[in-house]
Amino acid sequence: MAVAEVNKYAKIELINEVSDALANFVISDDIVSKDFDEYMRTIGSNENTVATTIPYIFERNLNSKSIIDIFSEKNKNKTYSPILKAMSNNFYSIFCVKKITKTGFELFSLVNEKNYSVTSPVKMTAYRGLGVGQYIFARIFNYENEYFIIELSGVLPANRKKDAMQYALTQIVQTPEMVYRDNAELKQKIEQNIKSSYDKFINIFGSDEVTTSNKNADNLIEYLNGDIEDENYDWKSQITDL
Questions:
Q1: Do the beta carbons of residue 140 and residue 118 sit within 8 Å?
Q2: Dihedrals φ, ψ of 5, to 5°?
Q3: Are residues 125 and 170 in the same domain?
Q4: Is 202 helix (H, G, I), strand (E, B) or coil?
Q5: What are the tens digits of pLDDT across the range 138-165?
Q6: Is 61 found in the same domain as 108?
Q7: Structural domain tally of the chain?
Q8: Confidence of residue 32 (pLDDT cuts 50, 70, 90)
Q9: Do 65 and 33 belong together in one domain?
Q10: Rounded Cα distance, 184 and 64, in Å
Q11: Of the candidates 35, 64, 88, which is a domain's last residue?
């Protein structure tokens, strides 16, 4: 077995060990277990399953601390620290499945428009029935320059692309920074577009603030946003009629 394969196998073993430790902590810790019971009642679930435990671990805060932070304070296993830190920086999104491999997936995030090669810590038989072109709601994290999938909470068929895009848009509206999170190239492009629009605005109005509302203002906004690409566009006449 190649060194790289051995290393990845060791990572997977450790990830699963940490995941199990977190799940056991949730139901055994005196304080956290009570909050988890309350969480279960709130969501109307009577069963302690992966589908309920994982969102609790990654999304719940208790006394302004994440469950992972609380676990880290009480668990002194230094081997866990790098993985716990990586898990804390997880990324939940809706992805299009581009390819299914022996050990994971090739995914495309509809939110930050980035491709991911993702390894599954569990056997791929757990995803039986999942196909290329479908959309999945999943949580991934980067550990030592490799992405791992830690949660798959839902699936949309390929013919529901509109619904998938709508969900992505909702996520962007709720958390705008998700657009460029984990995608430095897209972030740079957005920053360049913002600067370009700002420079155009200053050039047109001589100020960074103006108040008006009519059709000509709408046309100017389209021009500033780059929707009007005509270099000969007469923006001065639009200002005259504001």
A1: yes
A2: -70, -40
A3: yes
A4: helix
A5: 999 999 999 999 999 999 999 999 999 9
A6: no
A7: 3
A8: very high
A9: yes
A10: 29
A11: 88
Q: Please, which residues bridge with residue 96 across strands?
A: 108, 135
Cβ atoms of 104 and 119 within 8 Å: the answer is yes
Are 82 and 95 found together in one domain? no
Strands 146-156, 115-119: pairing kind: parallel
pTM score, two decimals? 0.75
Domain that holds residue 82: 3-88
Q: Which of 88, 116, 137 is the last residue of a domain?
A: 88
| 8, 104, 117 from 2: Cα distances, Å | 10, 18, 19
Same structural domain for residues 158 and 106?
yes
Statement to judge: residues 74 and 95 lie in one domain: no
Angle between the N-to-C axes of helices 81-88 and 67-74, in degrees from 0 to 180, rounded to the nearest 10: 170
Separation CA 63–CA 55 (nearest Å): 17
pLDDT in tens, 109-119: 999 999 999 99
**pLDDT by residue (tens digit) across 33-67?**
999 999 999 988 777 677 889 999 999 999 999 99
Amino acid at 98: K
